[in-house]
TrEMBL record:
<dbReference type="GO" id="GO:0015630">
    <property type="term" value="C:microtubule cytoskeleton"/>
</dbReference>
<dbReference type="Pfam" id="PF00225">
    <property type="entry name" value="Kinesin"/>
</dbReference>
<comment type="similarity">
    <text>Belongs to the TRAFAC class myosin-kinesin ATPase superfamily. Kinesin family.</text>
</comment>
<dbReference type="InterPro" id="IPR027417">
    <property type="entry name" value="P-loop_NTPase"/>
</dbReference>
<dbReference type="InterPro" id="IPR001752">
    <property type="entry name" value="Kinesin_motor_dom"/>
</dbReference>
<protein>
    <submittedName>
        <fullName>Kinesin motor domain-containing protein</fullName>
    </submittedName>
</protein>
<dbReference type="InterPro" id="IPR027640">
    <property type="entry name" value="Kinesin-like_fam"/>
</dbReference>
<keyword id="KW-0963">Cytoplasm</keyword>
<dbReference type="InterPro" id="IPR019821">
    <property type="entry name" value="Kinesin_motor_CS"/>
</dbReference>
<dbReference type="GO" id="GO:0007018">
    <property type="term" value="P:microtubule-based movement"/>
</dbReference>
<dbReference type="InterPro" id="IPR036961">
    <property type="entry name" value="Kinesin_motor_dom_sf"/>
</dbReference>
<feature type="domain" description="Kinesin motor">
    <location>
        <begin position="1"/>
        <end position="204"/>
    </location>
</feature>
<dbReference type="GO" id="GO:0005524">
    <property type="term" value="F:ATP binding"/>
</dbReference>
<keyword id="KW-0067">ATP-binding</keyword>
<dbReference type="GO" id="GO:0003777">
    <property type="term" value="F:microtubule motor activity"/>
</dbReference>
<keyword id="KW-0547">Nucleotide-binding</keyword>
<keyword id="KW-0206">Cytoskeleton</keyword>
Amino acid sequence: LFRTAEERSNDFDYTISVSMLEIYNAKIRDLLSKNKNSLSIRIGDTGALEIPGLLSFSVNTLQEVQEVLERGRLNRASTATDLNDHSSRSHAIVRVHVLAVNRTTGAVSESRLNLVDLAGSERVSQSGATGQQLKEAQFINRSLSELGNVVNALRQRQQHIPFRNCQLTHGESKTLLIVQLAPDMSAIQETVSSLIFADKVSKVQTRNMNGKNLQLGYSSLSTPSGSTRLRISNNFAGILW
């Protein structure tokens, strides 16, 4: 983004800003604010999803982006379980907003990129979650289940798609889904579940703005650690914001 902004600086003035939030126990919290009050989602005048009160920081370098992300990471809800010393208890979302103003015509263009780190589904019998941790696990599993319901509805071409059943699935967007698989045999159940979900997503067929059918595709990506990532993309998936 910064390289493109620099290359086009003679024709456009770019403003790039970053915000970071989490969905914790079905509530939206600003990870860059000291105020932990729950925020709400609304549809703006342009039809885009908006979160009033969400802080946004202007950034000009990759270093500034990393500083914002680190601040948000430190505020994200996490705890130790029997399976993970730093288990995420929320879905985290990094929102990148790009505003471009044409220096000649004054025309304004806006784009939004949302990077979503989903909390993993949790088998309570294995994680040993009790009390508050159990409540968190239930909210995580419920929201992931709602995501699965949206995928199933899209795959079956149902007339009603339950986007608004939870905060995680609000809105429509171009979507890229990356499924990361652990190489350990101890995680075989989670690996199989993730692959089943990925297979369902790969069968989703939607229509673009011109009414043309689009089919999801996927590819396998190898990583130095030996784990495998399954990348699934679509020009107009309409699953995550």
